[in-house]
Amino acid sequence: MTFATSSTQAYGETWYWNNRYGNESGPFDWYQKYPSLAPLIRLYVPHNHQRILVVGCGNSAFGEGMVDDGYQEVVNVDISSVVIKAMQNKYQSRPQLKYVEMDVRDMGAFEAGSFDAVIDKGTLDSILCGNNCRENATRMLEEVGRVLKDNGVYILITYGAPSYRLPLLKESSLWSIKLHVIEKFVAEKGPGQPIRELTDPIPLGEDASSLETVLGKHADIHYIYVCSTEAKVKEESDS
After folding, report:
1. What is the pTM assigned to this prediction?
2. Which phi and psi angles does 155 have, rounded to 5°?
3. What are the start-end ranges of the E strands in 131-197?
4. Between β-strands 115-121 and 148-158, what pairing exists: parallel, antiparallel or unpaired?
5. Residue 229's pLDDT band (boundaries 50, 70, 90)?
6. What's the half-sphere exposure (Cβ side, CA atoms, 13 Å) at 55?
7. What is the C-alpha separation between 94 and 10, in angstroms, rounded?
8. I need a labelling partner for 203 at 20 to 30 A (CA). Which of 46, 100, 209, 224 fits?
């Protein structure tokens, strides 16, 4: 995805999203749609008794796709009151889908350990485009870690390469991190040989230097970081 500097600088601002969603009539999914990511979601988020949080949901059909796939409780949050009201009206007949106006930097309305999984499709990226981006991104990741249950999982879909995202993820919480990749606009390309199987993680070296060897130069991909809280649980039990 190519971003225009003038618009991306406002991605961290509430007014931008209220204006945007006030003028958008149909659903829009950032980066990837649910069917493209479903094999990976099913791998790390089993269907049984899972409570899932989708951060920065916007007017995406992603949550709807999860419910159609059998997930029973998908909570969606967004900073835009405009889009939350629209989505509440749209899905009022589907109790498995909940929509809550909330800032991901302060999710105090949720108790610690409330969710089995948190899914982020571009929200961290948006925050990193705004003012005080590093501080706000750290606050968001700390909140994600807080609301996750023990052995919970944070799935981050992003354009950010490991050299940019791994340091931020590692300093914000104690995660066990796996990296997956998916080609951009995979749904539009149709069937074919993927650059790498979605469910096959890529080994992460100390400097992530193996990526170019595995993927080739200039791969047109989205990165997916699967961050598990199991490392945190283990360290606390060892202390």
Report:
1. 0.88
2. -110, 110
3. 148-158, 176-183
4. parallel
5. confident
6. 29
7. 32
8. 46
